[in-house]
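Q: Could you fold this chain for me?
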Amino acid sequence: MEDQSPKRIRCKAAVCRGAGEPLAIEEILVDPPKAYEVRVKIICTSLCHTDISFWQAKVSPVFPRILGHEAYGVVESVGEHVEGFAAGDAVVPTILGQCDHCTSCTSETSNLCDAVPPTMGPGMRRDGTGRFWDEQGNPLHDLLAVSTFSEYTVMDMNQLVKLDPAVPPKLGCLISCGGATGVGAAWRLAMLKPGSSVAIFGLGSVGLAVAQGAKMCGASKIIGVDLNPDKEKFGKAFGVTDFVNPSQLDKNKSVGGVISEMSGGGVDCSFECIGVPSVMAEAFRSTKKGNGKTIVLGLGNDKDEVRLPAQDLLYGKCIMGSSLGGLKPKTHIPILAEKCMNKELELDGLATHEVGMQEINKAFDLLLQGKSLRCIIWMGK
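A: Sure. Below is the predicted structure, expressed as structure tokens.
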């Protein structure tokens, strides 16, 4: 009887051979999925600042590597013991797992699955080994056990979310990480109430998604902070009501001080979407005493440390980190997709550019030059 089990696939991928080097389009081999794994054909992917951090070796400097973690795809094959997925299903990958059984997954307050814990290093979550090989038979490291800059990739079934096939691929791509992170931070972590005031430091795609999440929750004052004057126009389109450009302030005024004046003593919640320690501290200073909350979404460097005014903590202010905006991916991403489809959320505008895989380095140039929010990369072009 003929063996029907999945075999290795030969396909194209954008491979990063060294820190900061242009990605090379190469023929690679992708292993079949092992137990609890799914092999996915990537339809489109997008470039995130997190990919840039790994590409520049600011975090986990391991090469050669296949980057990418925001994407939309279709299930090609499944390994043993996989439940809930079949060939042809529309899916998006996530950097976090959700098994629905561990202590964290059953908790109301944590979204970091214990069964498939998050990691910055390469290798699949369950066994630490890779699934990619170059034509010479050398291993290619993955990124966050996702690696979507490849026509085919292998992921743990707990890191995949099934979507309604009516959801457009581009939208699915946007809510697999950046869009979900921003909206989730406002909706699930900050739990903003109608009439809330917020400040968003950094109006990239995540910051703009925060603005949409805050608007969805009924926030009345949404202050955007960015050095790029063009972001004022972008921000207003996503729900930002006020804009602060730190470079245009009087030298005697701090950003935190200006925001406190604008909001009558500080905002209810600030969001740091850049990953710079000094900005994290400024975001903390901009919140009000009593119950002001600062949520950090930006990815800093490995050895970054944050210095805060200790006395402010005595006044009830707090600062917290976030992964995927506090969302449980399998539970909440389909809800976000539905909200986008019924226009309760407007995230389509995050995709400012589109290229084919052969032009993937153009996506890096656009993001580094501040000319794009999200560049959609179509893998079949």
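A (continued): Residues 179-325 form a domain with the Rossmann fold fold (CATH 3.40.50.720).
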